[in-house]
Fold:
Amino acid sequence: MIVGMTLEIVPIAYHINMSVIAGIVLGPALGFISVFIVDLMIAMFGHGGFTVVGLNTLVVGTEAAVGFYFFHAFLGLLSSSKISAGLSAALATMLSLIISTSLMIGIVYLSQVNPEKILHVDKENFIGKVFSLGPHRENEKHEMQDNKIDIETFAKTVFFLGMFGWILEAVISGFVIRYVSRVRPDLILSEAT
Amino acid sequence: MDIGIIDYFANSGEGLLHRASPLYKIISTVFVLASIVITNDFIVLLSIYLMLASLVILTRLPFLKIISIAAYPAIFAVLFAISSWSEDWIIPATIILKALCAALAMVILIVTTPYPSVFSSISPFLPRVILEGLYLTYRSLFILLELMGNLLRALRIRGGLSPRRYIKNISNFASGIGLLLIRGFDLSERFYGVMQVRGYSGKIAEEERKRKLGHEDIFPIAVGLFILSVSIGARLEDDFKLYGIYLLTLSIVFVCCSAYYVYFHNSTRGVFWKR
Amino acid sequence: MEEIVRVSNLRFTYPDGTKLHFHGLDFVVHQGERVVILGPNGSGKSTLLFHLIGLFMASEGMISVFGVDPSKDYIKIRERIGVLLQNVENQIIAPTVWDDISFSPRNYGYKKEDVKRLVEDIIEKLDISHLRDKVPHYLSGGEKTKVGLAGALVTKPDLLILDEPFEGLDPTCRMDLIGLLNRISRENETALIISTHNIDTVPLIANTVYLMAMGGEIVGRGSPKEIFTQLELLSKCHIEPPVLGALFFELKKYGVNLDVSLTVEEAARIIADQIALFEKKKSGVG
Structure:
């Protein structure tokens, strides 16, 4: 996965993830752990996102785990076809990426919920004051006010930009798994047994 | 993503921060990240960014290279910024600046500290399997990167990547990735075999040797504490905000002093400065 | 001398179904012996070594290393065996040189002070103190070989197994390595088992040579001189004799029958003696 991230397919760092491939080869549990290790490492490689390693792991790990199950489901349906492994991987990748993107949007939406409103925290409390999201001062020019992300715009942007990535990743994952199924079929089929 | 160059900087740099203990640099980075999370003020964030930039200068590494590596998360922050757009530019700018500051703080840590040292320092907080996974991933990464380089070269030489043959190119490229995957698996099986032969029982790398606090350790801690206290002060005290412009000026002074120290004062003139 | 390794009539099947049968002569190694295994590509040299270190399990036959079957009880003998694989890159596991050299003693449960002493000792011996804190992927091929060797020797093993250790080394590094291995074997009575293609290095290091043909058949065993004078046997194994050996065989065709020598020094002495004898005869006749 890390090596794949060094291969910029399109400028502005459009790169393949290979999380679904990791899920297919390692299985859902080990795939999840490997995603955590990779997320931690790439956060330390300057890829950013160190404060959201947990959330990244949740999203990408879900992709890997769900991808495994989709792959075997499609493999079962397409088993008679010559190109079953590659096609199953491509379809599984596409669906997994849609699900993980939706999960990410859901998380972003949830992150805007003000915990003070949920927990009824005393605003004068020192720790609460430091970490609470709401505004403290009036007439403040430089500070983010009680501002929310327009989730609809965010979702549209992410889905639009992501679509190209999903197609590319699905195609590449399909070819990769097709190659692996010819050379080392035990790598992708052993997890199913 | 410049894994190789980051690793090279960390292992061969000669700046002030390179000599500091990994543990204290990690603590300092945690302070800075906490301050970035706490603060929502644009001026404070800009001041933090400039202070971090002055630390980059002190590392004696190529300044623009480091800043560009740390600018990568801005791409994703722009998505959030677009979604938060109202008539005021401050909010999107703050979102992007937060991402830049956090990334720069991490990049300063990793270009001045070899990865094994970072892993050793955080080992008390990680399960053994994750830690060992980090060490082995780090070790095998460079082997696989070299393999990948050879693979791409072979594809180019043998006509596997040709202009206007998009499907064929993707197929060949993906086959190369598949080959890399299989080689990676073989490598891991070989590593496992060797580990068994050499008596592996849970220790790949030695724990970081603790040493006494030195003057080069105090510097990052002091910077981290200063940034954190500024953020907390800005968050709590209304009056603090009035001095935002002075804070910004102070940061600019830090940048100039760092540049002066590295370029003019020190006899080595900075090993990487001019590259 | 105590017998430490014996392999007899071993059968093994690779994952792709290819079968190998180590038959013919038994493979035997004694304490302090320096054994070289010669054979063409695909004869099973590396496979034999992997059986000795317990990485492969035979389906049939007998294998004993320090009295145990390594595929079953390698844990009992692993501290007595050091290994240097063909691609040393695959053997360097830890992130720094010091970590890698100290890998085995740390995992065997040695005390910290003992680990430090052993590692410092081997670092000094191999003259790699300057590499102590380096990361392995920045080292040259020769340096990686030294680090791998240090990792294999740190616990002062009784048996050192080396798979193609001279590959990729320049002549100077190769001679340094040969000198080092000879010294270690002499000082510590460490047995060496080396597989190599490099014919010319064999006389410099081995006191016993095993010759393997395709399919795993062990066709010859003896000192380097005994083996390299058997041209038919060498030909069966697709092995050319060492350059010096070939020279003496060619000289025989011209009626010059000299005792075959495999080292430059000995060859020079033999030729010089022969010339001196010729000069004496000539002056005697004249």
